[in-house]
Design goal:
The complex is a heterodimer of chains A (384) and B (505). Chain A has 384 residues and is mainly α. Chain A contains 16 helices and four strands. Chain A has one domain: Formate dehydrogenase/DMSO reductase fold (Up-down Bundle). In chain A, helix 1 runs antiparallel to helix 5. Chain A starts with 6 loop residues before the first helix and ends in a 5-residue tail after the last helix. The mean pLDDT of chain A is 94. Chain B has 505 residues and is mainly alpha-helical. Chain B has three domains: 368 residues; 61 residues, no CATH class; 52 residues. In chain B, strands 1-2 form a two-stranded antiparallel ribbon. A two-stranded antiparallel ribbon of chain B has the order 3-6. In chain B, strands 4-5 form a two-stranded antiparallel sheet. The model of chain B has no long low-confidence stretch (mean pLDDT 95). The chains are: A mainly alpha (384), B mainly alpha (505). At the A-B interface, helix 5, helix 6, helix 7, strand 2 and helix 14 of A face helix 2, helix 3, strand 2, helix 11 and helix 16 of B.
Chain lengths: 384, 505
Amino acid sequence: MFENLSHLALQQYWWVIISLLGSILVFLMFVQGGQTLIRTIGKDSTERNMLINSIGRKWDLAFTTLVTFGGAFFASFPLFYATSFGGAYWVWMLILFSFIIQAVSYEFRRKPGNFLGQKTYDTFLFINGLLGTILIGAAVSTFFTGSEFSVDKIRLTAESANAITRWENGWHGLDAAANVQSLLLGLSVFFLARVMGSLYFISTIDDKNIFKNARKQVGINAIFFLAFFLVFLGMLFTAKGFAVDPESKKVFMEQGKYFHNLLEMPIVMVIFLLGVIGVLTAIYITWFRKSKKGLWFGGFGTVMTVFSLFLVAGFNHTPFYPSTFDLQSSLTIQNSSSSHYTLTAMSYVSLIVPFVIAYIWYAWTSMNKKNIDKEEIEGTDHAY
Amino acid sequence: MEEALVDWSRAQFALTAIYHWLFVPLTLGLSFLIAIMETFYYKTGNEEWKKITKFWMLLFGINFAIGVATGIILEFEFGTNWSNYSWFVGDIFGAPLAVEGIMAFFLESTFIAVMLFGWNKVSKKFHLVSTWLVALGANLSALWILVANAWMQNPVGMRFNPDTARNEMQNFWDVLLSPTAVDKFLHTISSGFVIGSLFVVGISSWYLLKKRHIQFARKSILLGAVFGLLSSFFIVLTGDSSGNDVAETQPMKLAAMEGLYKGQEGAGLVAIGIVNNKKEVDNDEESYHFKIEIPKMLSYLAERDPDAFVAGVEDLVKGNKKYGIEPTKEKIRKGKIAIQALKNYKEDKKAGNDEAAYTHLEKFENYYDYMGYGYFNDPKETVPNVPLTFYSFHLMVILGFYFILLFALVLWFSWKDQIAEKRFILKLGLWSIPLGYIASQLGWIVAEVGRQPWTIQDILPTKVSTSHLSVSNVQVTFWLFAALFTILLIAEISIIVRQIKIGPK
């Protein structure tokens, strides 16, 4: 079945999978957003424990998605994995550190003898929520802004300094944090995650106070999110973008490239608009209608919006990981991918994904049948 | 400068892997043990079994969290610190990592939430299934990462593509089902089962010594001893077949494991020995200060023939005509030809000289098998650290046999209902917990140090595998990891000890 597809078709199929994983990851970062709101929304320790236990049962899903995103990127586009992780070393390391401290915090925070004290673990969760979202946003923005790296495979045959990919400045990815457009996307992801975190609290916790405060946070963070994201989109769609000549495979700059991509791929445009409408609907019904169903619109909207941006970054003759140091070193889905054989094998593996989503859904709904309330948190013997 | 980068990158990988491996084996073993415990509860409805299950599950959850925390870095570290490796073999190596995420991690992370929090939320049956799925997920993830590691020891099912300048997969099943992968998987998960059993036996021993939770501890210790004894027999079997596989695919590692410099027919297996640290390939020092040997055993284990020839380090470096072993110097010479031919090929191809390019390509393909060697200058570079490999291997084996004895004693006295009075054995059980971890770490030292100087055996030297970073970057992250992981380890041990003192509810 897959073996009959062309190499390009497989590359596109895998770019779609990577895009989906990336967009689901951004949606699941409601966990991170929620982590930054524990003290803002929860006024006493019982409320805070309810909040922590609400997102705490989903943290490893977000975490696993990040890990799988890395693994899938490695398997399908290894040159990206090598170039970005080995080059933008510090951005990825900081992201990883922020997830390492997250992973222990839920389990350790209220356990006796936890060495660092509950406050430290709660601070870890806050740091993860802050750095994880902003830095992942900033890292993804380099798909559009480009980075300073070079790729030259002939270095493999040199006497020494054999690394085929090189980051060409000493900042190793921290340069993204100093780029306005990257920061804008980073902050957009951060505030979106806070909106989504609030929506998640609303949908899973039965408590008047929490509902009131979380709803307020939806409003406040939505304003910041919309402001940063609109400016980001404005810059993205008007700026020069990176383009590939389909014949010569040469990379060149094209004015308004990313906007052209939307126009030239109407389906992506539709996905994008559906996404934006979804997020706006979530904000609207939560704020004006006091609805508890915002999460579903917001989740759908986030996935669609991010998905469409990934497709804009990688499809329609666009290098998804451009180099500003040497345009011709830019990575496209064609020049950075795995072989036809490996992509075929991996495509068969991808057939189990719907099954995975089905059991996640089943376990999710079984566990969320009953909302969290005060009694549960105070009465249970296993709570974070 | 470059040497320092390689050393620090290796140190960081070793550090993070060692820390990760402090937590993973317990997850692998304890997950099955609690699944068995919960099955007893499900079948009998006996509340005591529920109590037992919930207590061990609590400890499992604490250990699992830190296992996850230390694991994420390993997924990304191939890229951050070994980017050349990631390109050179990513076409093969990336796939198992992705499959691990898709197939195993989601299974684990989805059902662990049900397992830990679902007691009153889902049916008894669904809960039991979830616990088994966590065990399955944990061990499945081990499968994929060990397939990846086995491929580094014995690369199969791929071909070098000079146009992309990397190895490309030719056969997924060869990679998945290579004998090295099967042995490695079985040997490694059984080491996890042994550690899980030692953990349960050791902690139960402590309760019995303190005369607390007697019923709970007796049930737990019996289960731990049965599971442990079966697993430690299995570990010997899989260890034997791993050794056989090493003899075939990594003769240099085998020689280092045994400290064998001069190959011989009918080689004996060193039972106990002290190697001479001054011994090198090109001096006449004795190989050992002292050793006690089991005659002909090494030949038998390696080749299944007591009189077979087993190559030593010197045979492998200097060559041995009689047994058809090519001198490393010759391999290096051919390797350099391959690298030059690849360079010429790529340059001519770029310049559009297709005919000349084709000639170079032909030459390259004739010499490709040696390409990895072309990065070395001195044949001595291809010898791993012999004393470290030797001692790690021998201590691991001794501990492995000791565990059989321990589990057998515990089982015997549990069976006779006398275990609570056998204070010496209980103390032995308690103090054996760290030994399991030590044995398991030693096993990884044998596997990874013994493979040096290669990341991919005979294909890619470690020194050509790193990212292009200045050494200070790696030094900083090394110390950050060292500090953070040490703090988290202290926290984890402190929490677990506290929970053990509190005891089952």
